[in-house]
Amino acid sequence: MRLLRATPIAVLITGFLVGCAHVPRRAWVTSSDYGGFHVVVADSASDSERFAAEEFKAYWLKVTGQDIPILDEPGGGIPVLIGRDAVPEDLLEEIELDGLGTDGLVIRTFPASDASGPRLVIVGGRERGTMYGVYTFLEDYLGVRWYTPKATYIPEGPPERFPGIKRRYVPPLLRRDGFTFMGYDRASADAFRPVQRISPYPKFGGYFVHSSFLLLRPDEYFPKHPEYYSEIDGERRAPVGIANFPDPVEMAKYPDKISQLCYSNPDVAQALVDVLVPMMRAEPDKQIWSVSQNDYFGNCQCSECRRIDEAEGTPMGSLLTGVNRVADAIRDEFPNNYIETLAYAYTRKAPKNMRPRDNVIISLCNIECDMSRAMSDPGSPVNRLFVEDLEAWSKIAPNLYFWDYPDSAHSIYTPFPCFHTMQENMQLWVEHGCTGAFMCGNGGTAVGLGDLRGYLLAKLVWDPYCDFEKHKREFIDFYYKEAGPYIREYLDLLTSTVINSGVTMGTLEPPNWIDYDLVVGAQEILNRAIAAAQSDEVRARVEAVQVQMQYAALTCRPRVRQTADAILLERPPSPTLEEFLGIMRRHWRGDPIYAHWGLPVDLVMAAVDGRTPPRRQRFELAILENDRYLVWVTPGHEGAVLRWRDKALDVELLRGYKYLDAFPTVWKEFTHTYPIGKPIAETFDVIRHTQDSITLRADLGSGLSVEKRLSLMDDVLELALTLKNNSDSAIIPAVKTVPEFYTQGPVHPEIWTQLGGKWRRQNPEAAPSRLELLDEVDYERLAARFPEAGVTLVSEFTPGEARPFLFAYRSEPPYNQLNLDVLPNQDPLEPGQSRSATIRYFLTKDKPERL
Hints:
Elements: H1 8-17, E1 29-30, E2 37-40, H2 47-64, E3 70-71, E4 78-82, H3 89-92, E5 105-110, E6 119-124, H4 129-140, E7 145-148, E8 151-153, E9 161-162, E10 166-169, E11 175-178, H5 186-195, E12 204-205, H6 212-215, H7 218-221, E13 231-232, E14 235-236, H8 248-251, H9 266-282, E15 288-290, H10 303-312, H11 316-330, E16 338-343, E17 360-365, H12 381-396, E18 400-404, H13 419-431, E19 436-439, H14 450-462, H15 468-480, H16 484-501, H17 516-532, H18 536-555, E20 559-562, E21 566-570, H19 577-586, H20 601-607, E22 616-620, E23 622-625, E24 629-634, E25 640-646, E26 651-652, H21 656-659, E27 667-671, E28 685-690, E29 693-699, E30 704-713, E31 716-725, E32 735-742, E33 750-755, E34 758-761, E35 769-773, E36 781-786, E37 791-797, E38 802-810, E39 817-824, E40 834-844
Parallel strand pairs: 2-3, 2-4, 4-6, 11-19, 12-15, 15-16, 16-17, 17-18, 18-19
Antiparallel strand pairs: 1-9, 5-6, 5-10, 7-8, 13-14, 20-21, 21-22, 23-24, 24-25, 25-26, 27-32, 28-29, 29-30, 30-31, 31-40, 32-39, 33-34, 33-36, 35-38, 36-37, 37-40, 38-39
Helix pairs in contact: 2-4, 9-11, 13-14, 14-15, 15-16, 16-17, 17-18, 18-19
């Protein structure tokens, strides 16, 4: 097993060696010598070394104007010796070749001597290292820059002289890959990867990632072997009959089909081996084979999986049990092959005692991290927890790769200003011994700053200690030319805004840090950039940046203001939805990553519910108040409760009056069927309104009517829901009430339930975010304790009418959100039948166990 594993000290040495270019007092050669160069490559050279020789010749001509020959042995003049077999033995003895591996390189000049003239040696690994040496020379010493697959900088002339060079470099990351440069045609992107030293090696065989059900397909295996699949709630389950089962978005429609393999079952490991071995024999050049979890949850809860997971303190325990068995089974026949698995989402935490086999690769994923802060920032709760997992894995994994997410996977139209954390994060990875990188995200470069991002990521995976700011400055100056200063100003505005917002900027997160003021300010800067552009090419590049801000203008959270009797929402000027779809089409490159989806019209349509959000809206407020509480309701905006204030305790329970349509901060009713999260009605009619009570009604398209009554009763806020079937056939109500309470700060709430008069805490180990379904029992009460404020929110239920369905919270800013979903009785309603559910809420300083 020869996967390179870098230690922290090796990384530091590597970072030093990249700068080892020694310049003697006099030049090695001067421009008058350039016509005497010739390339030497041996007959025995590898294909990549021959290609490197052709590239040297081509770019030497472009920069110097000198058309030099390629020979198989040195001639008269100055030889450029490319590849080990072209270098005489006496020179090889002076070059440190050991440890270069496949990708390492040496660039060395030798001055003229009595025996020979000046010589330039470029050698490295036969597979790629020599080629990378040529590109490094062309870039760092000749001044060529490859910015995008369609934008290359060729200097107007060569340097007046070359210094003496003594350079040796071995990249700390053996595998350097990702969704970069995906906005170009495949041929252009593939040709561009070598010049940027992007390396998808060692090669993957079989399925690249999330391979569990691709290897043991449910339609084929589940009917005969249900025991191969997750047991959940006492039943084996799998997505039988669902064609697009790898897609987590598709699987969200089938929550009762979400599952994984039962990795503790030795028969599952054998079945995986039976599938993998013929594939490995058919592709002997492939070294890495994925056995990894599906891209959703649903891990097995059978007794053996639970036993292992509890002993190891993580669901990775059962997964790694199966992966290690597969690795053991293929070792003898395939000693150079590796089984790769993900430490991802629920398997991210390292096991307490178990260790991966030496032919197992752990690919650790930081998909939850806040990319607006460095991963090492202790002020970020989510990042701090991740680094703990990284440190644990670095101590036990013989081969550690990583998946990083320095881009938005939420949408290619979402700005994602994480340039200020990219280098520090990359250095953290390699200093913890990682030797393989996959840079994940949306991969789109057609809009926004995607080309800049792709270029800088390529630089970082090759050399995490490069001069990052220099690379960024050079790219912006060349690519945006006279508009470059405004692009820098625009990027600075995005960066400062996301940092100051305190929002967690994760790859899957909607861009809640983007607000009215940012959009207006950014548009003003980009308009100046467009005005400064002196060519159609530069103007088009700036307009591509502007696409993301046009999308932000269309979709961003509104500015909220209150008057005595209304809530006012204001959004920035924007294109209409139809106009933006036209903008999308003009800037669409047909990104290959989206080729099977096409232009993401559906995603954009869903983001705005299929229509242009009004630029200005006014919603009448219905206000309830008694001595204890103040409540604001907007019947015309989904019947939402925007505010609930406890005047006695000085506590705000809801914050919709500040952040309506920005963050989850209100209380309203949602559907209980797919798509989960859709409000049941846009508006409610006011049936009755007094100082301390309001009754609202909405008639749904299904024939169901929902009547909602809110009443203030001394120290209690009472919610009564009446559901009536006005149709001619039975209806399952499929309605739930969802309050999005404020957690009173970034401290995790304690969730308690009372059954049979006894209180029990449901989240004994709090985490920054959590979602948990509650048991289907008739709890008498549910309580949420907010430690920051020292108060407890209590909800009381009548058995048979409604029950608490789930709790979910995100304690970090800006969300500070706790959902306590309540589900009314879901028995079918016959035609004309109605049913009511009453829930009573109150606040107290007492802890739940004292109530």
